[in-house]
Design brief:
Blueprint lengths: L3 H7 L5 E5 L5 H8 L5 E6 L2 H13 L6 E5 L13 E5 L3 H11 L11 E5 L4 H10 L2 E11 L2 E10 L8 H6 L8 H17 L3 H25 L1
Parallel strand pairs: 1-2, 1-4, 2-3, 4-5
Antiparallel strand pairs: 5-7, 6-7
Helix pairs in contact: 4-5, 7-8
Length: about 220
């Protein structure tokens, strides 16, 4: 799973965490074995990955602490049931849909859940949706895994809606850490590619955004030098 180590490091604020779309179950099992959580609810849409997660938990002697649930998105949880909710390995758009389908009331339970999001793509779209729908982005950790750049986002529902700038959507809070410069440079290249197929006005805006991202990348490199 991209961002596995940072996600595991952030997880475990409360006694119970949830891994939504758990796939092989490695994150859920690790959170228990490392003493980060007393219990992890591991869910997936498909029976086969859930069976692998259940088998892995049994292999490591923590089957009682890893509860596997079959279901879509956050429908497998009661409001307030998990202190940390991890959603990783799907596109930012899919993460938006999972959060939207749960509804704002889900995130107002006690304790209010902390979200650990690792989008496989569409990072800017996810940041925009979060800001427009009452979620605050609290921190990010850019990571490089299998020669691809990802970012691990830490967010929470606050009810405060805002309209972030294009630069805020593209970079978020990712301008720190050992992989920040590479992440921002990679994002700048993606924006440049978008500019190639855009109309004149939009193309100029995207090229200017790419230059801003490159400037941020250089600043990250200078801080690390």
């Amino acid at each position: 799973m991209p961002g596995f180590a940072p996600a595991a490091g952030w997880g475990g604020r409360g006694a119970t965490a949830a891994d939504i779309g758990c796939d092989h179950g490695k994150l859920a099992v690790s959170l228990v074995l490392w003493g980060r959580c007393e219990k992890v609810i591991a869910s997936d849409l498909r029976p086969a990955p859930l069976a692998r997660a259940r088998a892995l938990a049994a292999l490591h002697g923590c089957a009682d602490a890893v509860e596997c649930r079959l279901g879509a998105g956050l429908s497998v949880l009661r409001p307030g049931e998990a202190g940390d909710i991890v959603i990783a390995g799907v596109s930012g758009v899919t993460i938006c849909e999972i959060l939207r389908d749960a509804g704002a009331a889900f995130f107002q339970g006690r304790p209010e859940p902390r979200l650990i999001l690792v989008p496989a793509s569409k990072h800017a779209a996810l940041r925009l949706w979060l800001a427009q729908n009452g979620f605050s982005l609290l921190d990010e950790t850019p990571v490089l895994a299998a020669r691809r750049y990802y970012t691990v986002m830490h967010a929470a529902y606050t009810g405060l809606c805002c309209a972030p700038s294009p630069l805020e959507c593209a970079a978020g809070l990712a301008a720190h850490g050992p992989h920040a410069a590479g992440y921002l440079q990679h994002t700048a290249k993606d924006v440049e590619k978008q500019a190639l197929g855009a109309r004149d006005g939009e193309g100029a805006r995207l090229r200017a955004l790419a230059r801003e991202l490159e400037r941020m990348a250089r600043e990250c490199q200078e801080r690390q030098a």
